[in-house]
Prior knowledge:
single chain; 341 residues; mainly beta; Neuraminidase; four-stranded antiparallel sheet; 1 helix
Amino acid sequence: xxxxxxxxxxxxxxxxxxxxAKKEPAEKPDVAAEINKPRxxxxxxxxxxxxxxxxxxxxxxxxxxxxxxxxxxxxSLPVEGGVATSLTNGPAYDTHPRFSPDGKRIAFxxxxxxxxxxxxxxxxxxxxxxxxxxxxxxxxxxxxxxxGQYLIARKVDTKRAGANLPTELWMFHVRGGTGIKLxxxxxxxxxxxxxxxxxxxxxxxxxxxxxxxxxxxxxxGLWQISRYDRVTGQVFPLTQGYGGAVRPAVxxxxxxxxxxxxxxxxxxxxxxxxxxGAEQVLVKGVTRDEQExxxxxxxxxxxxxxxxxxxxxxxxxxxxxxxxxxxxQTGNIPFKVNVEx
Length: 341
C-alpha cells in the first residue's frame, strides 16, 4: 500500500512539474504602448520652417547654445542663429527643455511612456532617462536645482475629470524616487512656471488667485507670483494688483525678477528690482499669455536670461528674439528647422 501511495505521489509531482514547465504563449506586443515608435502605416511629412508657435527656450550655461521645442520635438541652435539640430524625434510629444547647471544634461517633458513625465538626456540628445514614471499624474515644466541633483516641476493629478485638476509643485531627485511635495493644491491653486534663485534657496512661481472659472475676473490680477523658501517651507507673495504676474525669471545676480503681465489688453514683459520693488515695462505686445486658459503648457513659454545677465531670449510671434536689457532694443535670432513628422 505504501509503495502504491509513493508511486501516485511521484506521478502527481511529475505531472505538476510538467505543467509548470510548459511555456505560456508569448503575449503580442502592444503597438499602441510604444508611443515613440512610428506605426508601419504612418504617413510621414517633411517641411522647412523659420517660425514656431509657443516655443519654450533655454540657453546653455556657457551662453553658446539655445534649445527649444517645436511641434513636439526638441532642437538645439547656435545662439547667433542658423540651422537647428534635432535632439529628439518620433511620435512622442517632447517639450520644456532645460539645461542642467553644468550644461551636460537636458531635462524635458515627454509622453513617450504613455503619460507626460520628466526625462533627462545628454546635451546631444543621447541616453534618455526617465525620472518620473507614473500613469495617473502628469509631470511638466521641470527646472533644475542649482546643484543639479533635483528637478522641480508641476505635478497634475489626472485621476478625475475637470478644468481645475489638482496641481502641485514637487521636487524629484535625478536618480528617481517618489519625490517631495513642496506645495499643496488645497492651499495653492495651479502653481506654474517654477524657477530657482541663484543661491538655490528660493523657488519663484506663479499661482492662480482662486479656483478656475470660465468667466475669470482679471481686474485685480488673476495670477500672481510667490516665493517658496526651501529652508523654512514658507510661501511669500511678491506681486499683486492689476495685470497679474506670470512666468517669473530671476537674473543671474539675483537682483532682478522678470515676469509677464497683462497691461491695456496686451501681454508685456516687466522687470522688478528685488531690492526696492521698482518696476518697468521692458517689451509691449508680446505673444499673448494664457491667464484665462487651462495652462496645460503653462501660462507662457519658457524664456531665459543669458548667463551674463545682459539679455533675455524668448519666443515672440513665431520668432526667437533677444532683448538687450541696457538699451531695451530687441533683435531677431534667425533659425531654420527641417521638420519631419
